[in-house]
């Protein structure tokens, strides 16, 4: 039987993808409920974004596909580059100091755990 994946995508998050990837690496492969608990106690700003997107993916799985929330796990999670806003700040002696305000897109994929059968 093919494994079904449910996804949720959040775009244009006001955080750099590098910072978001640090949070994603902590929850990849965890059970969905356990991942929410881990994210709740993380101090990073990105934890809130990942938590919201993960909750949305769980709601999609339960409401749209009739999956059991207790059997879901984070099969894939990754952050990609969004558009970068280029701003400037005046530097010393009238120089131009660029500021890059980065944004990111976040993808969360959940799948159901397969029940392991002992070969008896």
Can you offer a commentary on this structure?
- The protein is of the alpha+beta class.
- The chain has a single domain, classed as Ribosomal Protein L22, Chain A (Alpha-Beta Complex).
- The strands form two sheets. It has a three-stranded antiparallel beta sheet.
- Strand 3 and strand 4 form a beta hairpin.
- Helix 2 runs antiparallel to helix 3.
- The model has no long low-confidence stretch (mean pLDDT 92).
Principal-axes geometry comes out as: elongated
How many H/I helical runs?
3
Uncertain spans: none
* Topology, number of strands: 5
Q: How large is the share of residues in beta strands?
A: 25-35%
Please provide a brief summary of the model.
By secondary structure, this protein is α+β, with helices and mostly antiparallel strands.
Features:
120 residues; alpha+beta; Ribosomal Protein L22, Chain A; three-stranded antiparallel sheet; two-stranded antiparallel ribbon; 3 helices; 33% helix; elongated
Question: In terms of topology, how is this protein built?
Answer:
Elements: E1 5-13, H1 17-27, H2 32-40, H3 46-65, E2 72-81, E3 85-90, E4 96-101, E5 104-112
Antiparallel strand pairs: 1-5, 2-5, 3-4
Helix pairs in contact: 2-3
